[in-house]
Please model this.
Amino acid sequence: MSDQAKMLPPVDESTLWGWMRKNLFYSWFSGISTFVLLWIIFELLYVFVEWGLLNATFEGADRTACSPDGACWAFISSRWPQFLYGLYPVEMRWRADVAFLLLVLALLPVFWEGMPKRRWFFVHTCVYPFEVYILVWGGWFGLEVLDDTRRVGGFMLTLIVGLTGIALSLPIGIVLALGRRSEMAAISSLCVMFIEFIRGVPLITLLFIASTMLNYFLPPGTTFDLLVRVLIMVTLFASGYMAEVIRGGLQAIPRGQWEGAASLGLGYGKTMGFIILPQVLKISIPGIVNIFISLFKDTTLVVIIGLLDPLGIGKSAVADIAWKGLSREVYVFLAFMFFVFCFVMSRYSQHLERRLDTQHRD
Amino acid sequence: MSEFPKRAGISDILYDEKFRAWVIQFVVIMGTVGLFAWMTSNAIENLAELGITQGFGFLDRTSFYDINQALIEYSSTSTHGRAALVGLLNTLLMACAGIVAATLLGFFVGVARLSSNWLLSKVASFYVETLRNIPLLIQIVLWQSVILTLPSVKNSIDFGGIVYLSNRGTVIPEIEAGEGFVWVLLSFFVGICVCVYNMRRSKKHQLETGEVRSYFWVNVASVTLFPLGVYFLLGSPLDYTLPELSRFNFKGGVTIRTEFVSLWLALSIYTSSFIAENVRGGILAISKGQTEASLALGLTRGQLMRLVIIPQAMRVVITPLTSQYLNLTKNSSLAIAVGYMDLTATLGGITLNQTGQAMECMFLLLLFYLSISLTVSLLMNWFNVKMALVER
Model:
């Protein structure tokens, strides 16, 4: 008791000084680390702000317009359309814009639960892939056909690859996950083999297969567009991971749900379609968003097999003589763009996880 | 079911679950086999048309290309098989170096995120949130472009004449073990054995009498002073050559190439941001009651960490940690973007392009990555069963 009587009163946290004493300088070690950290933050910020903002040049026609000891952002702004559309023909770019606006419309009902007439917008979401196909490749309704799919590039390509991968891998992933849990030995082992194969090898090797080998397995003389081959491989890759997320969701459904459905006399198809899968999909959304984030980041790998994603555009831009030696600017810019996309999505996924978590806590 | 009259008929067989299962499996297996047969026959036809001879004979042919970093002897007159082996060793080297660095960084950042120092925890979460949301490939090329802005070899940044930093790489002294160095290693090993023996003795003593006996300083001496003593007794059997700057390049010393450094930095920093999250999750998963109970029993803070929190957190952390290690190993295949010659760049890159043996090269490449993944997951399953909480 005497020890306690001698104890100091707790620090008053209501004042700034009190808060700092409690959270930054509560021991000599913490005090030193606070100062060291402050110094590091200051140094890094100073270097970055000086290079990227104060000494930077934002507008100009070529390298000579830029100051030598600052970033040359003029280069990015001059190449901006390419970063967005790749080498997509200028007179056709409005079609890509329309496709993007329709994408926003297609995603709204997925994320906005209280949306009026949500059901009708969902119909639009389901036909959206066909709209993109018609708009981007053309050939229907008097739209001019795109002569070479290699022209599709930039963030447009990133979105196309990422969204196709996630949209097509969802049904395949569900089938694989159900197959893996099937009691039929042949089916479950086939699914396990496929899933483990996909998850065991790097995406880049699958892309190599797409670029060098896929044509060998088709009847002689078949030629296949590189972009389509990449889309197939990315879809297969994503479905391996999707299957595991769905399997996790399936395992989280209590046994009572199956028993309840069985006692109502529902067969396998109806149990799955009306009882189990709607619940599984709902709790798997955070996992699906996480797959989408990593797929979105992984789309940068297509540059290695020669597609012009933003990184590919950046690499070819750096080789341009008028702007030589600006690789840092390009990569910092791309890192920032990807960061913004992925950060927003990961925050959304965390928010969903938290919300779903409270609903299921008993 | 017995209340219904039995009707032997076709519908009986159709609705029999076992029968249906057999039919479905039969159809699926036949479909898969058929698909593979079709693809194989197409491939044979296509390859015959291209005039590519099949088989692994190309591995014995001369490679005619150079590899800038080889752990074993290699030159452009070596075989493709040798080149693949060099690449494989480079992949493993990158994986090991990356795993060590990512683990250290990841644990540090993960613990820092839980620090009661507000600034430190905020900096740690900034680190995690930024780095895991930037694609790895961009991080790799970004590091490369930063390293390439270092001064040229001639104007290398000099760290006391021991380490030199330039845009072509980092040069460190070369260390060569002389005769008798084996004895130093052996004495170090003996020191470790002494430590283990002491720990067992002290545990036994504690179990018998309840008294805690510390051998800490004895242990420290047996792993440091003892090998050091042996080292000096044998007359310092360790030779080193300092790098020396000649006109165009360094004489002596080992050069760690730019490709290696940029890939290694990017891989370990990227992976460490994921490991940090796993570590944080593992520590947070331990309920507060465990801490309170341990403190109530009179354990010190150190004992609390060592005996209660870490063993339980490890159980949660080990599985995601291994999958991060596997990810790192698979991601090391991005080496091709900076020109680090790993297995994907040698066997799946230059060898494939030179010989045109796409099938065989891809087969070996996939086999390598798959066998690593499957071995590690099997080990992990075994470990998980062993570590699982025994519940009543």
In short: The longest helix of chain B spans residues 17-50.
